[in-house]
Amino acid sequence: MELFADRAEAGALLAERLPEVRDPVVLALPRGGVAVAVPVVRRIGGELEVLVTRKIGYPPAPELGVGAIAEGGEPVFDLTMLDRLGLTPEAVADVVERERRELARRVETYRGGRPLPPLAGREVIVVDDGLATGVTARAALRAVAAARPARVTLAVPVGAQDTVRMMRSEADEVVVLLTPADFRAVGQWYAHFDQLTDEDVLDLLDRR
């Protein structure tokens, strides 16, 4: 199975598979989702914005996600992972509060603190660079759903098969280009998968 050269190529290919909708709101999940979403908007049009999300990490090993939170939404937890670790949502309340503060900082950084555009009654496309556990995408989709859009599409270049199946109950449509059986991490399906900075995100938004 071929790799995407980078997120820009993946976004251009993804745009070809998206349904035609009129004046969508394209919400990119930073940071990597922004690099995918820019070529999507260039091809299909619409309004591009950043929907800020944050992973909720396991305190002794923060890189291990046990949940996620999106602006405007409540924390969403991977209950299987919490159970495996012997944790409850209350046990990571301090982590949630810390991530809320970082989420607010990023909203200020990426959008100058301005609110998201109104989503009620509109076509919304949520874009990320891939789906591993899906907990971040789930948090984003639930926050979007609370704003009562007409329809929500989740669009990603690559995702784990089980996660993609789960996401079909969270969005009206899921568009994904690759669902490899040997999926281990999002980055393995990109030839170039650099970690992006806040400055990279701002530069992408300026050049959209």
Provide a short characterization of the protein structure:
It comes from Nonomuraea spiralis. With 208 residues, this protein is of the alpha/beta class.
CATH architecture: 3-Layer(aba) Sandwich
Work out the number of β strands.
8
Q: Which band does the percent of strand residues land in?
A: 15-25%
Number of domains: 1
- Based on Cα principal axes, name the global outline: globular
- Rounded radius of gyration (Å): 16 Å
Order of helices and strands: HEHEEEEHHEHEHEH
Number of helical stretches of at least 4 residues: 7
The CATH top-level class label: Alpha Beta
Distance between the termini: 30 Å
| Poorly predicted regions | none
- Summarize the biggest pleated sheet: 5 strands, parallel
Instruction: Give the CATH topology.
Output: Rossmann fold
Strand line-up across the major sheet: 2-1-6-7-8
Average pLDDT taken over every residue: 94
Helix content: 25-40%
Helix/strand/pairing category: alpha/beta
SSE map:
Elements: H1 7-17, E1 25-28, H2 32-44, E2 47-50, E3 53-58, E4 61-70, E5 76-77, H3 79-85, H4 93-111, E6 123-127, H5 135-145, E7 151-158, H6 161-167, E8 173-178, H7 198-206
Parallel strand pairs: 1-2, 1-6, 6-7, 7-8
Antiparallel strand pairs: 3-4, 4-5
What key phrases describe this protein's structure?
alpha/beta; 208 residues; 8 strands; 7 helices; single chain; three-stranded antiparallel beta sheet; 37% helix; five-stranded parallel beta sheet; Rossmann fold
